[in-house]
Amino acid sequence: MGRSRTVSQRKFDHLSICLRRNVENKGTGTWFDEVQFVHYAVPNFDLNDVDITVNFLGRDFKAPIIIAGMTGGHETAARINAELARVAEELGIGMGVGSQRAAIENPRLAYTYAIVRETAPNAFIIANIGAAQIARGYSIDEVKRIINMVKANALAVHFNPAHECLQLEGEPSFKGSLDKLREITSTLEVPVIAKEVGFGISKEAAEALAKVGVRAIDVGGSGGTNWALVEYYRAKKSRSKIHERLCKLLIDWGIPTAVSICEVRSVLPKIPLIATGGIRTGLDIAKAIALGADVVGIGLPLLRLAYKGGSNAVISELRAIIHELKVVMFLVGAQTLYELREVPLILGPRLSRWLKLRGIDPEEFSRSRA
Ligand SMILES: Cc1cc2nc3c(=O)[nH]c(=O)nc-3n(C[C@H](O)[C@H](O)[C@H](O)COP(=O)(O)O)c2cc1C
C-alpha cells in the first residue's frame, strides 16, 4: 500500500509540475526547423479535397493524431482522462493513458484509467506500462489486466532509462526487459508499441525492439516535454543536490524528434511509426509525416487545455492544428497523407550532418515529385 501511494503521489507531482511550470525544452528543440518544404504553386485539387484519414494498426483514424499517454492513478487524472477521451471519441483519433502501474499496485485506482474506455467506446485506446516494471516481473496475467482495464486496442511499453535515472525514486533496472517483451509480444493478441518518453529512439534501439516483435514504435523524441526539467523542479523542492545536478547536466540529452523519425525509418521502412515529442502545430505534423511517421502524438499542450478548459478547449486546439495540416498539404500539392510522404524536403546543415554521420543519405529526402 505504501508503495502504491508513492507511485500515485509521484504521478500527481509530475502532473502538477507539467501544468504549472515551463517544462518544454527550448534548448535542443525538435529539429523540425531543420526541415523545409518546397512550395508547390499548381495544386490540381481544392483545399476542401485534402484527405487526412489514415489507417494505423488496422484502425481508420479521421486525423493522424494520438493524444499521448500521460495520466492516471489519482482523482485529478481521472477527470483529465475523461475530458481527453471525449475528444478522442468526437474527433475519431487515438488516445493513450499514462502508466497503469499505480492501478496494478492499488486496484482501487483502476477507475482513473477505465473511465477512458467508458467515455470513448469507439476510439483507438492504448494501454501503458513501463519496460522497467515488466523487467522486474509483471506476469502475463498482470499485463492482460492492464489491457482489459481500458479494453485497449494496443499496449504501449515505455522505455525510459533516462527518466528512471533522473527521478529521485527511479528504478533504472532494465535487465531482461527485451526478453520479457518478446514473451509479451508473442503471447498477447493486441499489438505492442514500444515508446520513449522524450529522449528519442535510435536506429539501433529500433532494430532491437523490432527483433523482439514490437508491432509499432513511438519515437518519443526530445524537444517537447523535458523530463530533466520536470525532475529538476522536483529535486530542488526536495533539496536533493545530487539529482538537481544530474538533471542540469542532462537538460539537453536525447535525440530530437525529427532526427529520431529518420533514424527509425532508415532501418525499419515499413513499421507503423508514431512521432511524439514537441509536436505543436499542423506544420510540425506535416514535417513528421513527410520524414516518415504515420501518425503523431501530442501530449503537454492537450493536458493543459483539458485541465483548464475541458474537452471543448482541446477540440478547438486540435481543429486549428488539423486546419494547419490541411493548408500545408495543399501548399505542397499533397492531397493525401500517402502523397505527403513523397514530397521533396530540404534538410538543414545540422540534420544533414547527423544523418550522414549515421550512414543515412540526407539527399534521399530531396526526392523529386512523382
Ligand atoms: C504529465 C505527463 C505524464 C506522462 N506520463 C507518461 C507515462 O506514464 N507513460 C508514458 O509512456 N509516457 C508518459 N508521458 C510522455 C508522453 O507520452 C509524451 O511522450 C511526452 O509528453 C512528449 O510529448 P509532448 O512533447 O507533446 O508532451 C507523460 C507526459 C506528461 C506530460
Give a structural overview.
With 370 residues, this protein is α/β, with parallel strands linked by helices. It has a single domain, classed as TIM Barrel, CATH 3.20.20. It is built from 16 helices and twelve strands. It has helices at residues 2-20, 75-91, 101-105, 111-119, 131-135, 140-149, 161-166, 177-187, 203-211, 227-237, 241-249, 257-267, 282-291, 300-331, 337-340, 349-357, and strands at residues 35-37, 54-56, 59-61, 65-67, 94-96, 124-130, 154-158, 192-195, 216-218, 273-276, 295-298, 345-347. The strands form three sheets. An eight-stranded parallel β-barrel has the order 4-5-6-7-8-9-10-11, surrounded by seven helices. A two-stranded antiparallel ribbon has the order 1-12. Strands 2-3 form a two-stranded antiparallel ribbon. Strand 4, helix 2 (75-91) and strand 5 (94-96) form a beta-alpha-beta unit. Helix 1 (2-20) crosses helix 10 (227-237) and helix 13 packs across helix 14 (300-331). The longest helix is centred in the C-terminal third of the chain and has 32 residues, at 300-331. The N and C termini lie far apart (60 Å). The model is unreliable at 1-5 (pLDDT under 50). The structure holds flavin mononucleotide (FMN). Flavin mononucleotide is lined by residues 14-15, 18, 68-71, 98-99, 128, 156, 158, 195, 197-198, 220, 224-225, 276-279, 298-300, 303.
